[in-house]
Write a sequence for this structure.
């Protein structure tokens, strides 16, 4: 069996900790992390950046007919959140009693994402929660 690659572990680390990166040349931040800054190209100086998870809802939609993985959760919300520290990220948004609207302040929280039926494995991921 092939050993998990460094890039896979990097992705897992990023998924659990909301770690992206920042270009030290121009200050642009990315999530997920990029190898090269979109603005600076070869002058990029990338370094890890852990986002604090605070942001605001830019757009959202209610999912009533989900893919099989999330069939037990429907209806639920997904959307785009603009992080206070820079980039926009996609994610699930937790509905705490009808507070979801464009401009609602949210914070990333780690929540159960889905259970793998065959293995019984529970997957976690960040979700956004109104604050
Ligand atoms: Zn840059």
């Amino acid at each position: 069996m092939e050993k998990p690659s460094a890039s896979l572990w990097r992705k897992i680390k990023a998924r659990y900790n909301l770690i992206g990166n920042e270009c030290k040349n121009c200050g642009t931040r990315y999530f997920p992390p990029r190898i090269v800054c979109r603005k600076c190209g070869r002058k990029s100086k990338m370094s890890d950046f852990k986002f604090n998870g605070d942001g605001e809802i830019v757009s959202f939609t209610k999912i009533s007919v989900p893919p099989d993985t999330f069939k037990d959760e429907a209806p639920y919300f997904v959307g785009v959140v603009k992080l206070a520290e820079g980039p926009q990220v996609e994610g699930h948004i937790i509905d705490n009693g009808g507070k979801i609207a464009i401009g609602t302040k949210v914070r990333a929280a780690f929540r159960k994402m889905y259970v793998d039926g065959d293995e019984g494995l529970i997957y976690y991921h960040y979700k956004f929660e109104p604050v």
The pocket of zinc ion is lined by residues 23, 25-26, 28, 37, 39-40, 44 (CB under 6 Å). The chain has two domains: 1-50, 52-131. The two ends are 44 Å apart (CA to CA).
